[in-house]
From TrEMBL:
Ranges of biased composition (kind: Low complexity): 230-244
Name of the protein this chain belongs to: Predicted chitinase
Biased composition (Polar residues): 219-228, 254-266
GO MF annotation list: chitinase activity
Region feature Disordered, mapped onto this chain: 217-278
Lineage of source species: Bacteria, Pseudomonadati, Bacteroidota, Flavobacteriia, Flavobacteriales
UniProt source species: Chryseobacterium arachidis
Amino acid sequence: MSKKGVSKISGNPSPKVGEATTYTVTDWYPATPQNQRVESAVTWELFKKRSNGSFTTTNIKKTGAGIFTFGEVAHKHTYRLEAYLYEPEGMGTSTIEITPQPVAVPRINKVELQYVDDTPGTTFSFTEKMRARAQCVNLQGEKLKFSLWEDDAAGDGHNANNLLIETKEATVDQTGVAVAEFMLTRALIQKAMQGETDPQKLEFYVTVEYFSHNKHATDNVNLNNPLHNQAPAQQPRPQQRSPAQPAPPPQPAGNNNTPPRAQNSPAAEKPQSKKEEKGIVESVTNWWNNLELWDWGEAKGKAEAKQPSTPQPNDGKTVSVVQGSSVEELMDAYFAKKEYTKQTGEAAGTLEYTIGSNGNRTSTDAEKTRIANIILGKPAIKALASKKEYTTLEAIKSALTKEAYNKNEKITIQTFKLGAEFKKVNSAALDSKLYLVARTAGLNGKQATITIKEKDGLIKGSPDAILPALEITEAQMEATAASSGEVQGTEKTQFTGTIENGMVKIPIHLRPKSNDELTQWKEKLAKGKEDGTYTYKFGGPNNVANEDDKKRIAQIVLNNAKKGNANNTKIADGKTAHLDEIVKVLQIKAYASGDTITFKLHKKEKELLYLNVKAQGEKQHDKNFLKAEGAYFVLGKNCFCNRDITITEFEIILKKLRESEGVSNTNSVFYADNCNVDDKTNAGFLAQLNKIFKDFEINTCIRKIHFLAQVYHESDKFQTTLEYANGSKYDPGRHADAIGNGNTVAGDGEKYKGKGLMQLTWKNNYSKYKAYSGEDVVASPLRVAEELELAVNSAAWFWTQGKVLGNGTEWTVPDTSYSQYDHSVGKKFPKTQISNTTPSGTTSYATINMNLLADKDYIDTISWLVNGGGNGRQERRNYLKEIKKIFGYPEDCANTEATATGAVTIRLTRKWQTDNSTIGEFSIDNSTISGYILEEKGPDTTVSGMEQRVPIGTYKLEWHSGTKFAKALKLSNDVVSASRAILIHAGNTAADTEGCLLPGSSKSTDFVGGSRDKLNEIFNFVDEQGIDGAQIIITEAYE
């Protein structure tokens, strides 16, 4: 008699304790009647393995859904789960042997202080580095925050007078260790001098936090102050707050200082720590005020994130003393840009915010936190940055005084001042405005002199040559570049400033005074370093009669030398020749076949700079900074074409992409629960990426940008190489395209679901990749997800030759919403003909190399080819835009045509309108510049003097200078005359427009922020590209 019932089940054989796990029926015996093949009739029975190896029932049975949650002690045992209609068989594919896994509880087991030689530390010098080392479990790849705090209380107890000195982040390595280093110099001394009642010694401790919820303090440590002069006993100093330490933002009064503790966490089993008793936790939340948000976020859950329970501090205290010594030191120097990002806590004013929806309950703290977090992400709050202001979660919660809010109700929120921070930059274009920054200890009031030096001397001709630049004022730093006239600033080779609060900062313009010399610098950077010569042999007669002939024949010579021909070898990779060098060696004469000329070759190299700093204190200090491989400042275009991405660059790319979406883990890859790839290291992943970039000619900035944007989305932000869903949707009968793509039997969907960086899907695609690679991924498709080399290689294969198209030699982009968006409709590309012969036959098809579409920047059409639908369409656009910013594309790309076009095109799409104004989004072709533009209200008009916006259309742009605006862009066309003076100038509100266009970097109702900075960005770009042919195209797509 034929078997009937369940023949196969699937599910996780290693479920985590406490998590509900679903098991499903994936196949039935053929003799099972169709009307009985229903999971609701299936019995699921759980058996337990006994000491003698046999399985006996646990008497746990359920009918219907196979959902099981294993208890805490279950990880000590092995189980067998069976599904059946009639009777259990006790073996075979209708059973799964299950070994539950214990939940990995993250802990910070120990924090200790060390000297720089890694030995345990108790007594330190002010001039040395102190290392704080956290030993952790189940936190590999996660970030910890290390906070160095001053304790001004005597003895070994902490109190709420503690002051934050410095915070740092460190990543837990594969051994479970994270280390942060602190300089015990100026920071400690300055803090000690700010109200310390006993300046003879300084106490400090270190708090280590896991996502700012897990506090774990080291032992108290005392520092003997080497600068101490014994104060008279009868003149104690009162404690005062330093003007440099503004009052913290107001915090709502809480019931106690104990943060919420996660259920079943290590902290839940401990009493209140002494730090909490002393009020230290409240001090911490002053600078990290989303503690409640995290708890709320965990309560909500994140399916894709690896967010463990929150541990609390492990306490322990001993006291040690730090011996003093001289503290003068040059600590760091670098190029920087000034950004207003520092949260000072200093009150700025208030913001009246209008609630946008009904039914917002705020009667409990949790409800307030939820609503406050929503408000915190709104454009009106983000727009505060354009006014150099910000607000906090706690400030918004404090403003929510009612039990509920409805649409159009208003609240008043406290705002705070953003302070300036000088952010280090690793590269910048020639002609940029920057700051030279030096950080010191013990040298306040002294003079520091900074010199810019070349590593190789591409500009000045010799290694370590001094590079001059212009010293400018703060006003000149902020000023818009003039379209003509004398360049502002004083050319210098040394830059001197007074050290204040441990820092000297000098504004400079990175260029020479002379425009002619600037042109020479640019030519030298463009050519690169001289590297040998090339001898060219003429293959036939060439008559050079005049200068025009020289240029014409020089171009032919250059083309032949670059490509190579029968008489001339190809110029070596990495080297190039330049037209003007060939013109120089050509003579006015007739060249016969076999005649030769010899001209210079150049090797494209980066112009690397470093800084020398000198300062006179008790002794002369003289030190170089940035002078090391990987540390040099790059002058010019730091291009990613035809080179490997470095590990530092990759980790910056990863960090910024993750931060752009608020992903907490910003530093590691492939950490999703379902990902079993064999190498999860950043270095291993990058090595494979660099390999396929070479092998598949993904070798320019724009090709790498597009490829990375696609695979970042396909792999869920580089978190996994395996599709999360079970793949049954790809089975025949469930997907219309299943059989046509080779999925002919039930189970093929799961077997050939998405794997690898590009989520290779369908059996036919696995067959094609097998024919290409020789790897039998048809029989073993999981290899594509579990072997990193195949995961990456298969993505590059699909990118260049995996997308199957119809027959023919040319592909015309069809008219779709995708091609309409990226303007690729009707564009033609050559098809690649693929033919792979294997023992089982020959695979032939036509395909498209997506590198060609990347060259044209066709983002949506590429997304359509990769995915076949609209999945993640906007996210892919966002990733492309973000990676372009990270790459500095096209500004920093040596191979882009953008800087040579001279035709600036601004694209403005009107999207929001009120009774007072119109706001749209704009971007500039061939640049990363984008933002918002505010105009007059509608309707459109061509009549002069009307406070209404101009009609949609294309407008010519030209420079304008008048009594009100010294420099502006004026737009005009056949219906809007130039005499109307419709300008692009700075402003924030409808009252500022007067019919004109106001750019900005942020928006809220009837307002754009950051207008002057955005205008300068536009003007600088137009200055660089040239005004000839510049235009603005205005369209509308109202929301």
